[in-house]
Fold these 4 entries.
Entry 1:
Amino acid sequence: MCLAPLISHAQSARKSTGNELIFSNVGFFTILILLILVIVFLIIRIKQITKQLSTQQQQLEKLSRIDDQTQLFNKWYFLKRLYEDFELYLRNPQTEAVLLMIDLDHFKNINETYGHASGDLVLEIVARIITQRTRKTDLCARYGGKEFLLLLRNTNADNAFKLAEELRADIQATKIQLADENINITCSIGIAAYNKQLQTCHDWIQYADKAMHLSKRKGRNRSTVHQAD
């Protein structure tokens, strides 16, 4: 019996099996590399998405506490922080702190004469003056359409009055170009120091508001300190 054909067939089979193993190994490593690349891509993409979400979250948090027009704190965030501070003051009655209520005089005339865009510009300029004059520890907010409310921490009424007068003078001295002319604006300021008779932070705000309206009644463009009963 001739063994040559069988040997030849066996050798051919071994070669075929070897080739299949080689191709099988090549396919395995190709798939492995592709999987690794996919995993790396997914990791990079997840990091990008996480960063984007973090940025968006920060932007949302900023929008929730910053007044877009003036870049000062908005009313609701200010009240939240004031309430937190007030709770601390109740436990430490000797704390010195002062509220300043600033109201722009005749602001309605600016909007009616020059337009609301000009009114917005005035608000931005006043906000910059407030930011430049106050400390980082102070809390400054746009409280209403033309009102600003400041919490001066670790400050007594005398120093608060000095700051109020500096702010008032700076605002009055600033020339603002509206249309084809330069104008000056003034403000009326109310000052209310913290005292242990206060029951709520809203009472405190009312005292500052009353002092501001007293400045209005006295002729505007002045600062008035609330006198406790």
Entry 2:
Amino acid sequence: MEDKKEMTTPVISAATDTEQSISKCTVNSIVNQSTDFKGYMNIFESVKEKVSARQAAEQYGIRVNRNGMACCPFHNDRHPSMKIDKGYYCFACGEKGDVIHFVEKLFGIRPYEAARKLAEDFEVTIEKKQKSSKRVSHKRVERNPYQTAKTFHDWVQYCIRVLSDYLRYLEELKKKYAPVKMDEEWNTEFCNASSQIPIIDNYLEILLNGSLEEQIRFMSEKGREVKNIAGRLDEYRRRDAQADGRSSVCDGISA
């Protein structure tokens, strides 16, 4: 049997202060820290429902061709490598996200400021949700609604980066261990990667295009799983760096 060298896996850079703070609390606690959370987050949901990343790109001077491809504004891109539709994905640098994250990165502003800019530029009407009249019997740690919304949005973007990195790893793994002959026995790594790819694709679809309710549910049910994936990828990085006898080039999730 041919001895196959272990593949180089994507690398996770050191967690930012935001990601470290996010990892110390559950999504349920984030949501419950402010009674105004859903009402405040409504601007994010409304903007994402009514404005696509493509509309925003064209509004802010980025030329998008008929196939939905454009030169990526986040790296020195000479040929269109970014696919822009409801969300966006650059096949060259791996940058990926929703319309709010696109504007946030394009202008170097905070998530809420990006949502407000989009709402103003596209004249999106934000409907205010009625506050619940139910009394809360237990004490809560109150936070500024902006802080709560920003923390949740940052956590969503962090999960998108982790899952995008993991998806690239799985695709590389599937390609490496794909059977050469039709009658060849399928490698376990190939089978595992093939079964995981559609699951991760579905996770990303929820985070990129799902409603606020769907994102909250995902974070509550799958947040720990995403953190475990990040830990495994980091472990692969250390293993490969040790095997190579040198530090791997940081080409995975960036802060």
Entry 3:
Amino acid sequence: MNENILICDDNQLILKILSKFLESKNFATTSVSSARDCLKALSKHSFGTVIVDISLPDMERSQFVEQLQKMANGARIVFMSSNSDENWLRNEGLERYPFFQKPFSLSSVVKSIQSPWADPAQRVLIVDDQELLRELLADYLRRHGIEVSVAHDGKEAVKLASKQPFDSILMDVRMPNMGGIDALKALKEASIYTPVVLMSGYGDVSSPEEARAVGAKDFLSKPFKLATAMQMLDDVR
């Protein structure tokens, strides 16, 4: 039997569907229908994962989430909602946690639970001057439980990396102000040895061997699959 999962939702149908599906995947489940019962269960039992509706009616949302984080005791937290609450999560500094907007696919829930990135302590820095790619990558990684920071060029990346630790950095080669290769040199000069994966759609760097020659751990050629980027970041950390 795999880990025990706590499911918290006031919708009885969702509780039943999630519980039945996860048990078919050999997980043990406990289901509760209120925020207070969720916290009560956490105070009495140990869980590997808590899947919780972010807007349970019996407790104010911010208060509930604050208590949930304190009482999770190392459990992964996966949020879900029938509303679009991602902006609220970002404003509250909770964007590192996986979030599913109802309706969602059951398989995506299992992926989040089993992801090697489900530990919210994991931190990744994405560096690219293309805003669309930055946001696509950030959104994808956050949905898999990764804490993400973004920078628009190498200079900003070095500044961020000098202020807080990251488990890995995904950085474009060609950017204004400071490109990826110069940023690698600046990181080394600052004695920051965070693993870096370079990415490029040009011929500046065209292979993992060339990337390693300039100090990176690996290389991604644009365009690439988001899942490939996540796996590579996991491999290099």
Entry 4:
Amino acid sequence: MAASAIRILPDLNRRTLVVDPDDHHLYVSLGCATENLCLAARAMGLEPEAEFRPEGDGEIRVALTPGEAEVSPLFEAIVSRQCTRNDYDGTPLPAEELRLLKEAGSGDGVAVVLLTDHDAIEHALVFIRFANTRQLNNSTFRRELEAWIRFNDAEAVAKGDGLSGRATGNPQAPRWLGKILMRAVLRPKAESTKLARQVRSSAGLAVCSSRQRMTERIGWKPGAATSALPCKPRRWAFATPS
């Protein structure tokens, strides 16, 4: 906290060096936090202005000044949106919802590509399945993933970080049991089949990207876009920002 501002900094002690060796996802997560903060600030009558400062490990400074309260639909959606790896119903989205999705994720050096055509989705799925299989065949990645998953809500609250086991579509379990189950069922072929089913049951794919180089640590911008997108229509699959 600072005078009339909030600083958002990376915690390098919680880096995931195998899956995120260049800290891409780490800085994307700062963007997600920034977007939520800005939406909440406006709802409380404060006008936010976010700025990335590259000095040291980098930080995002959000300056806050008095303004008109604006409780937007994006703010109200924060508590109800969710990341899930369950199947969707395959219902296409109307043109207006597609427009809103693209609008929500675009701006200031960030673009969104929406893939709704069957052939385009299948082409992307080839790369998704290849990447997933390659990761799961990497024993070091599997150990890191296991350490990063919070198998129950109590563990997630106590640690204040990690990937919730709920997001993987699995029930809560004590850590000792969750590790055993994960090692038994997390297999490349089965996961690839499940991923394909989930992607094909969604209304499409949304890919967020930024033209700016990650060495400049501007990855927070597509992160902010990714945070806003799930507040829009459901039944959508999101590709990792790049």
